[in-house]
Design a protein that fits this description.
By secondary structure, the chain is α+β, with helices and mostly antiparallel strands. It folds into two domains: 2-120, Fructose-1,6-Bisphosphatase, subunit A, domain 1 (Fructose-1,6-Bisphosphatase, Chain A, domain 1, 2-Layer Sandwich); 129-244, 3-Layer(aba) Sandwich (D-Maltodextrin-Binding Protein, domain 2), CATH 3.40.190.80. Helix content is 32%, strand content 29%. The protein is built from eight helices and 15 strands. It has helices at 2-5, 25-41, 70-74, 146-156, 169-178, 191-203, 217-220, 228-244; strands at residues 14-18, 21-24, 46-49, 53-55, 60-68, 81-88, 91-99, 104-109, 113-116, 119-120, 133-136, 162-164, 183-186, 207-209, 223-226. The strands form three sheets. Strands 4-3-5-6-7-8-9-10 form an eight-stranded mixed sheet. A five-stranded mixed sheet has the order 12-11-13-15-14, with helices on both faces. Strand 6 (81-88) and strand 7 (91-99) form a beta hairpin. Helix 4 (146-156) packs across helix 8 and helix 5 (169-178) packs parallel to helix 6. It is globular. 43% of the residues are buried. The model has no long low-confidence stretch (mean pLDDT 93).
Length: 250
Amino acid sequence: MLLRHFRGLHPDDIRTKTQNDFVSFVDRESETAIRGVILDAFPGHEFLGEEHGSVGGGAWRWIVDPLDGTSNYVHGVPQFAISIALQHKGRLVVGLVYDPIRGDEYVAERGGGAWRNGERLGVADRQPMEDALIGTGFPFRARQVFDDYMATFREIYPRVSDVRRPGSAALDFAFVASGATAGFWEFALSPWDIAAGALLIEEAGGVITDFAGGDSYLSSGNVVTGAPQIHRELLACVQKVLRERGRALA
């Protein structure tokens, strides 16, 4: 569905949820299709999707972004993904990020490793910070933290090889899991942006935390992640900036 309509949307097919936050009928129909398949197979599970919210309840919860990178998609930029995660009693147990442009399927199962198209993944370990390519994202839904974000950017950028902002958090996490980038940080993401990628990174040997170094990133939306040493250094940079600016860590 995503490829069928890519670069074929009419302006009337697109609406704005908030400034610079787009949604199209493709987002909604993709989520409806995914929800139907999952709940037909697992009718007792909860389903949380970006476009239609939560349905059902229980110990098992699916967290789905049917089109991560919608702004890229509606502008014809070939960088977007589908993100699907499964929690059991609040613990992530399965994660899938699918890149339809490249045909890459990133899959992780708790205790079973992280994989791309059958190839086992590992983070970019033992890479010094000054050689690291780091990913990030702009907090376009939370303009109130933009100055804080820019302060962290100014702290981190001189310390690394370079920084990339591709525009799909799900793929950003997949790139960390694969070792393409060594780390990533962002403010104010949503659970469906993070969930599948978080498990990919953990199963690939990486670390993912909130800004306090804890595990509340799905609720806070604030994420620092990477290979263990890179994560420690990125987290130290973020915490230094936020403390200097009198901000709470979360």
